[in-house]
Amino acid sequence: MAINSYQYLVEERLETASEYYEDYEKYYAEGEFSTKASEISADINQRLKNF
User: Fold this and answer.
1) What is the reported pTM?
2) 28: Cα separation from own chain's centroid
3) Are 45 and 22 in contact (CB under 8 A)?
4) Using CA atoms, how far apart are residues 20 and 48, in angstroms rounded to an integer?
5) Across all residues in the chain, what is the average pLDDT?
6) Which DSSP letter does residue 5 get?
7) How far is CA 24 from CA 5, 8, 13, 32, 48, in A?
């Protein structure tokens, strides 16, 4: 959702997604989707560096 949105909203939405990941890691560190979530988080962080 963040990547395909209006340019002025992308950074804010990526930051929100990063916060959601932090919450996921806090409560479900050993969760079923933790590997995929880590990959997505790395992508989010890389995109945030471009702003």
Assistant:
1) 0.84
2) 15
3) no
4) 15
5) 94
6) S
7) 23, 26, 16, 11, 19
